[in-house]
Design goal:
459 residues; Thrombin, subunit H; 7-stranded mixed beta sheet; 10 helices; elongated; alpha+beta; 6-stranded antiparallel barrel; Pdz3 Domain
């Protein structure tokens, strides 16, 4: 009997010791990550899901932006790509180019205009009852004579520009739903907009776009860096750098994280024999305001030239190099307001630097010309300028009413054009394309004129 009790007590003691050792090992393994506690994992996933829902709330009130893309951590990259591919479109832009030439004697000849297609990409960011709303780059749609959009490498439809923001290199375009087959409409998905402020270096991403204009393709990589400022791109935003390949035609396409969220709009790449894997995307948070404001605008409609409005100014581009040299803002410098200008008695003043026209940012005369093509004489538009006041440039905003192009303005323009055609090719003024919007773009022959008038102009 005594031996039996001894055996029982020994067994109980051994069991207790074994149990304590097992629990100790389990606790140690859980803390060191060897074994994950399912309850803890489930709790973390729930928090991440809730945070995602908060940061991806629709930013356009009048445009339906409820994404039909699944929002989760995809275990298989192919599942992710299959889910988000229908949110990306291919864009074809017929652009008008002007080619300046010279005769065998060195004199300028009449410029020749021609059209050529350019390829890009876009991302579906919303829908209305009658339109599909697409976000892309401004440089993808600029100087457009016609636009078309191809959905998921299927059928192609005409598109219209709603608005552009050249300072951010972003644009909103639309496609009418009335001509789209129901089958295609059912397969179209609205992108799930993420929060680019929460991205982390090393995070895996997918870039989707119309590379080389031959159809949708996918590249895979990581976020290499954040807040990159690239002077060559001319974009004022701090960009996302990725080693996912960004090729020609990818501009305007999507940069997607592993949760299927749109975190960036592909914009450019660094190229060169010694450079590999340096692509850039505009953070989606930068684009949210553009989506919200531009989506509500009416589609642009081409207006016959005789009905287009004019400002009646002599202007010059202030590019980044000039702005840095002279301590001025970038934009369109109003060198002179013509005597017959419709804005002669408005709040617009000589020496103002125009930075926005009709609530759309502009940095060059050509961009201003592009917007004037869609504004009628008699239309009231808002203008933002930077004006020198007390030694500092301050922003001013006001309304101006456009007028028809005057006969005198056209005659002056034609006369200057003919004069420039007879100038030698080494004359810088003769190298500039002249405008056709009722005002004369007067580039200085060289920067010396700016410096000669530096004090007189109050800079």
């Amino acid at each position: 009997m005594k031996k039996v009790l001894t055996v029982i007590i020994s067994a109980i003691g051994f069991g207790l010791i074994a149990g304590l050792v097992f629990v100790g090992i389990l606790v140690f393994a859980t803390k060191t990550g060897i074994v994950k506690d399912n309850a803890i994992v489930n709790s973390i996933e729930s928090v991440e899901s809730n945070n995602t829902q908060e940061t991806t709330a629709p930013v356009v009130k009048e445009v339906r932006q409820n994404s039909n893309v699944a929002n989760s951590n995809f275990e298989d990259i192919t599942d992710l790509i299959e889910e988000v591919m229908p949110t990306v479109v291919s864009i074809t832009n017929m652009q008008k180019f002007t080619q300046n030439g010279y005769s065998m004697f060195g004199f300028r000849v009449q410029p020749q205009e021609y059209e050529a297609p350019a390829s890009g990409s876009g991302v579906i960011v919303g829908m209305t009852d009658d339109q599909i709303i697409i976000l892309t780059n401004n440089h993808v749609v600029q100087q457009s004579t016609s636009l078309s959009v191809t959905f998921n490498d299927t059928k192609t439809f005409d598109a219209s520009i709603k608005g552009t923001d050249s300072s951010k290199d972003l644009a909103i375009i639309s496609v009418s739903k009335k001509d789209i087959d129901p089958e295609i409409l059912n397969n179209i998905k609205i992108s799930n907009i993420g929060n680019s402020d929460n991205i982390r270096i090393g995070e895996h991403v997918v870039a989707i776009g119309n590379a080389l204009g031959i159809g949708q393709s996918v590249t895979y990589g990581i976020i290499s860096a954040k807040d990159r400022e690239i002077d060559e791109i001319g974009n004022s935003s701090k960009l996302i750098q990725t080693d996912a390949a960004i090729n020609p035609g990818n501009s305007g396409g999507a940069l997607i994280n592993t949760r299927g969220e749109l975190i960036g709009i592909n914009v450019a790449k660094s190229s060169g024999n010694a450079i590999e894997g340096m692509g850039y995307a505009i953070p989606i948070n930068v684009a949210k305001e553009v989506i919200e404001t531009m989506s509500k605008r009416k589609d642009r409609e081409s207006i016959p030239e005789e009905e287009q409005g004019q400002l009646g100014i002599t202007a010059r581009n202030i590019d980044s190099q000039t702005a840095e040299s002279l301590g001025m803002p970038e934009g369109i410098y109003v060198f002179k307001i013509n005597d017959d200008s419709p804005v002669k008695n408005s709040d617009l003043k000589e020496k103002d630097i125009i930075i926005s026209f009709d609530d759309q940012s502009v940095k060059t005369v050509s961009e201003l010309q592009e917007l004037l093509r869609y504004t009628r004489a008699g239309q009231e538009v808002s203008i933002k300028v930077k004006r020198l006041d007390g030694g500092e440039y301050v922003e001013k905003e006001f309304k101006v009413t456009l007028a028809k192009k005057s006969i005198n303005a056209k005659q002056q323009q034609n006369g200057r054009q003919q004069q420039n055609n007879n100038q030698q090719p080494n004359n810088q003024q003769g190298n500039e394309q002249q405008p056709s919007d009722g005002y004369y773009y007067d580039p200085f022959n060289d920067m010396d004129e700016i410096f000669r008038n530096f004090g007189k102009w109050g800079w």
